[in-house]
Automatic annotation (TrEMBL):
<dbReference type="Pfam" id="PF04545">
    <property type="entry name" value="Sigma70_r4"/>
</dbReference>
<keyword id="KW-0238">DNA-binding</keyword>
<dbReference type="GO" id="GO:0016987">
    <property type="term" value="F:sigma factor activity"/>
</dbReference>
<dbReference type="InterPro" id="IPR013325">
    <property type="entry name" value="RNA_pol_sigma_r2"/>
</dbReference>
<feature type="domain" description="RNA polymerase sigma-70 region 2">
    <location>
        <begin position="12"/>
        <end position="80"/>
    </location>
</feature>
<protein>
    <submittedName>
        <fullName>Rna polymerase sigma-70</fullName>
    </submittedName>
</protein>
<dbReference type="GO" id="GO:0003677">
    <property type="term" value="F:DNA binding"/>
</dbReference>
<feature type="domain" description="RNA polymerase sigma-70 region 4">
    <location>
        <begin position="181"/>
        <end position="230"/>
    </location>
</feature>
<dbReference type="Pfam" id="PF04542">
    <property type="entry name" value="Sigma70_r2"/>
</dbReference>
<dbReference type="InterPro" id="IPR014284">
    <property type="entry name" value="RNA_pol_sigma-70_dom"/>
</dbReference>
<dbReference type="InterPro" id="IPR000943">
    <property type="entry name" value="RNA_pol_sigma70"/>
</dbReference>
<keyword id="KW-0805">Transcription regulation</keyword>
<dbReference type="GO" id="GO:0006352">
    <property type="term" value="P:DNA-templated transcription initiation"/>
</dbReference>
<keyword id="KW-0731">Sigma factor</keyword>
<dbReference type="GO" id="GO:0003899">
    <property type="term" value="F:DNA-directed RNA polymerase activity"/>
</dbReference>
<dbReference type="InterPro" id="IPR012845">
    <property type="entry name" value="RNA_pol_sigma_FliA_WhiG"/>
</dbReference>
<keyword id="KW-0804">Transcription</keyword>
Length: 238
């Protein structure tokens, strides 16, 4: 067992390893800052220091890497992929858009949404980031209100006639509604859908193609997912 000073020195020595693990995981989640993940990883590092057994002939860095990574992933899973605060902000956004559409009789601008929610443009961007993250986990649930009725966006973009006559009427109606909603997206937004869901390109490569930053692509992605979700909600009400 190391004394306190030696233990602290070991922790400081391997903080770069923790940062390496965080980069390796590559989690894209607006509700977790890099510093948060590093702090969580340090807990895993301390656990590795306490439990490491030299007699097993396993290099400490290899052992610690696994313990650090496991600790970070376990913590994220325990708290959910998106924090409750992030989900509440997304809900507030949806309610604000519905309210503004009702009063204005048109789609509200981002400036009007910010005023309604009393948030900054940067904070609105964080809402889009959350929507983008959730869509990468389950796009169909994100658009179809968690019903899980299964219109696959990637399949639809590849073949607009992909649904057979034997499939449920609900899916056919969703297909037509979603096709119409996608057709009303801006050309750049449609391109991002194509590159991400059909070509399976990561956001980093899409950002390179569009000559914008990765955070900007993430926000555009999140914004158009929320736009599609709102379009589908309006279709249900009609």
């Amino acid at each position: 067992m190391q004394n306190i000073e030696d233990r602290e020195a070991t922790i400081l020595k391997y903080v770069p390893l923790v940062e390496k693990v965080v980069r390796h995981i590559g989690l894209s989640n607006p509700d977790y800052e890099k510093s948060d993940l590093v702090n969580i990883g340090v807990i895993g590092l301390m656990d590795a220091i306490d439990k490491y057994d030299e007699d097993k002939k396993v290099p400490f860095e290899n052992y610690a890497f696994i313990r650090i990574k496991g600790t970070i992933i376990d913590e994220i899973r325990r708290n959910g992929p998106v924090s409750r605060t992030g989900m509440n902000k997304l809900k507030d956004y949806r309610l604000a858009v519905e309210s503004l559409q009702h009063s204005l009789k048109r789609i509200p601008t981002e400036e009007e949404i910010c005023r309604e929610l009393q948030i900054t443009a940067k904070q609105l961007g964080q809402v889009y980031d959350t929507a983008s993250y959730l869509a990468t986990q389950s796009l169909e649930k994100m658009i179809f209100n968690d019903e899980g009725n299964g219109v696959e966006l990637g399949d639809m973009l590849v073949d607009t006639h992909a649904i057979s006559v034997e499939e449920e009427l609900l899916k056919n109606e969703q297909m037509e509604a979603l096709k119409g909603a996608i057709g009303r997206l801006k050309e750049r937004e449609q391109l991002i859908l194509q590159l991400y869901y059909v070509e399976k390109l990561p956001l980093k490569e899409i950002a390179f193609i569009l000559e914008v930053s990765v955070p900007r692509v993430s926000q555009i992605h999140g914004k158009m997912i929320l736009k599609l979700k709102e379009e589908m909600r309006r279709e249900e009400l009609d």
